[in-house]
Design goal:
The protein is an alpha+beta fold. It has three helices and two strands.
Length: 90
Amino acid sequence: MNHGLAAGEEGWFEDLSALTAPWGFDPGGIAVPVELWHGSLDRMVPVAHGRWLAGHLPTVRAHVEDGHGHISIGAGSLGDKLDQLWSRTS
């Protein structure tokens, strides 16, 4: 926490605002391809939110990965995820 907040608390407050205020757009209006990954063990963002978001994005491919959390969802498999993104856009 000390390192993350060393430059100030503004980012922390922006995150809290994003969690509690309207986003300013309708996720259902997103028309570009979306890949959404969420870990079933995420303790920072409940998996129910990932499922809710997936249900509101018309072009989503949702991936809920069992046994992964907020950080581990990408650790070690980021290259594979980027390959999936690339294949969907090319």
